[in-house]
Amino acid sequence: MTHVDRRPDIAAVAAAAGVSVTTVSHVLSGRRPVSDATRAKVEAVIERLGYRPNPSARSLRTDRSESVALIVPDITNPFYPAVAAGLQDVLLGQGYLLSVNDAALPSRALREVVRHVLARRVDGIVLASYGATDDDIAEIARSGTKLVRLGGRFRAEFGDVVRADDVGGMHDVVSHLIERGYARIAFVNGERDAHPSRIRLEGYERAMREAGREIDPELIVSTTFTRAGGVEGATTLLERSTSRPDAIVCGNDLIAVGVLDVTRRLGLSVPGDLAITGYDDIEAASLVTPALTTVHNPAREIGRTCARMLLDRLAGDYDDVAREVVLAHRLIVRESS
Amino acid sequence: MTHVDRRPDIAAVAAAAGVSVTTVSHVLSGRRPVSDATRAKVEAVIERLGYRPNPSARSLRTDRSESVALIVPDITNPFYPAVAAGLQDVLLGQGYLLSVNDAALPSRALREVVRHVLARRVDGIVLASYGATDDDIAEIARSGTKLVRLGGRFRAEFGDVVRADDVGGMHDVVSHLIERGYARIAFVNGERDAHPSRIRLEGYERAMREAGREIDPELIVSTTFTRAGGVEGATTLLERSTSRPDAIVCGNDLIAVGVLDVTRRLGLSVPGDLAITGYDDIEAASLVTPALTTVHNPAREIGRTCARMLLDRLAGDYDDVAREVVLAHRLIVRESS
DNA sequence: GGTCGGGTGCAAATCGTTTTGCATGCTATT
DNA sequence: AATAGCATGCAAAACGATTTGCACCCGACC
C-alpha cells in the first residue's frame, strides 16, 4: 500500500502561497476584492496541490449543504428518471448534489423517507410523490427546507408547484375520442384520492360535459397507476358491464399497457372493438402494439423547471410569494384510437 | 412570519438533561457505556426537543459523510433505476443518502461527474458506467473513496465488481437460437470498446464455436446500446448483406426494440423471417409485439448486492481483498424467437 | 485497611471552513 | 503636507459535533 498524502486544507494552500487563509477563502468565494497578482498566485497553488474545500466544514459554517433531494413515488416508473435527468441538467452546473429517493410502498413509507432527507439537512426538496399528505408537507415546511412540488394542489404556504396541464391534456384526449365517434368512453384512473387522479378525472368530465355527453359512474373506475392497476380496471369494466365501453381512457400509460394486456387476452381488436389512450408518453407508449395515443408529459422539462425554481428560492428570490408553473401538454395520436 | 426556534444543538440537550455533551454523544453513539438512568433521561430530552445531530458537524469530525453516489451512463435506461431501487433498499435502513448521477453524453462527461461526486466527499461510489476508463477509476482510487463497480473487468486494485453472468446469458440465448434451427445468426452489439459489449460478444462466440458454427464477421456490427443503435445496426445488416441473417441477437433490449422498428418498416415477419432477441429483460421487452426473447438481468438484486459490498468495505471488512460477485442469469423465451 | 479496577462522567482539543473587525500602506484630494 | 478613503490582508471567533485523557466513586480483593 502506497502512502497517500494527507489532503491539503486551506491552511496548507495559504502557507504555500504565502498569504493568509482569509485571502484564500476570498479568492474562492469572491466576497471581497483580491488583487490580480494574489489571486493568480493562490489559484496556481490550489491547482498544484489539488485542493478541494471540505464540503462538511463549509456547510457547517454556512448552514448550506448544496444538495437537493428528489422524492418520487416509484422510481421504476420511467417518468421519474426523466424528471431526475432534467433536475440534473440544471443542478450539476451549480455544484449541487442530487439525491434520488424512492418512496415506493410497501417497503418505504413516505414519511420515513421525508424524515431521512430532512435529517440530512438538504437545502431543498423536490417532492413528486402524489401520496404526500398535508402533514408531510407541513413537516418539511417546519424544517425550513425549501420545497418545490411536482404536481399537487397549489397552496401558498406549501411552496411552489410545477405541473403539466393535466386537465387540458385529458380534455384533449377525450375530445379526440368524441370527435372520432366513440360513444361509451370509460375511464380507468389511478389511486382515487391522489391529486393527479382527481385532476385528470376533471379533464375527462369537462370534455364530456362540453360535448353534451352524460357521465356514467359505471364507466369510471379507480385502481393504481401501474400496469397491474390497468389489468384490474379493464377486467372490471369489460367483464362486468352489461354494455361494454367502446373506448377506455387511462390515467397513465402504465395503466393503458395493463388494459392492453386484457384486450389481448379477450381477443378484442384495438382500436376496432375498443380504443385505448394513455397519459405521459413514456417510451413504452410507442413500443406496444398498437402504439398508444397519449398525451406527452414533458418530464425532463418539468425537472429542469423544478430545479430552476428551487435555485431561485435558495437564492432568496421570490421569498414572499409562491409560484405555480404550468407546462403545456401535447396530444400524441397513434394507432390505438 | 412566525419565529422559528433555533435548532437545538448537542449542548442544549446536555443542558436540559443536566449532563455533559460527552455523555449525550455517548448515548448517541454507544461507544462508551452509559448508565440506564442517564440514557433514559437523555433520550427523553432528545425526543422532547426534537434534536437531530448536524450531519455536517459530524462528518467534519469523523471524515465520513454517510452518503453514497451511483453513477450511471443513462438514467433513462430502465435498467438503472431498478439498480437504484435495489441500492436504496439496503442503504436507507443504514442512514445513507443515495445520490444518483447521470453521466449521459454529450451533456455530461463522465470525468466531470466523477469529479463532482469526489468533491462532495461521498464515502463510496457505485460506478455503473461502462464508459469509465482506467484513468477515471484510478482517480477514484487515489481519492480513497470506496468503489464498487457494476460490471467491468475485475482487477484487484480497482475495487469490487458485481455483475451478471453475461457470457453465460448470451451463450444461452445463442444456443437457444441454434437449437431452434436458425442458420445465420447475426449480432448487433453496443459500443465496440465497452466492456459489456466485449463480454456479450464472447458469449455469442462461445456458443457458436461450441455448436461448430463458423463466425462470420459480416454478421457482427457494433453500434450503441440504444434504440437508435438498433435501427442503425439492423439497417446495416438487412440492407447491405447479400444473404440476410435469419436471426439477430442484440446486445440489449433497447437495441432489439430498434431492430424491431426496422423489421416493421421492411415488412418482415418476426420470428418467421427473422428471430430477434434482447438482453436485460426491461419492461419494454414484454411490451413490444412480438414480445422479446431475452435474458433476465436481476437489476434490483444487483443493486442490493452492490450496496452490501460497499457497506462491507466501509465497515473495514475485506480491507485487503477485492471481490467479484457474479449473479445468475435466466433465459426468458417469448414470441420473438 | 489499602489498593486495584470497572463504571461513569467531564473538560478540552479537534475537524476545516467562513466571516467579522481591525490594521496597514498607498493614492488622490485639498 | 496632511488627511480621507480605498484596496488589501490578517487574526480570531464562530459553526456543532466526536474523542481523548483524566478524575471520581464505589465495591471487591488480598
TrEMBL record, chains A, B:
Gene3D superfamilies: 3.40.50.2300, lambda repressor-like DNA-binding domains. One of its GO terms (molecular function) is DNA-binding transcription factor activity. The keyword Transcription regulation applies. InterPro entries: HTH_LacI (IPR000843), LacI/GalR-like_sensor (IPR046335), Lambda_DNA-bd_dom_sf (IPR010982), Peripla_BP_I (IPR028082). It comes from the Bacteria. Residues 8-62 form the HTH lacI-type domain. CDD domains: HTH_LacI, PBP1_LacI_sugar_binding-like. This is Ribose operon repressor RbsR. It comes from Sinosporangium siamense. The lineage of its organism: Bacteria, Bacillati, Actinomycetota, Actinomycetes, Streptosporangiales.
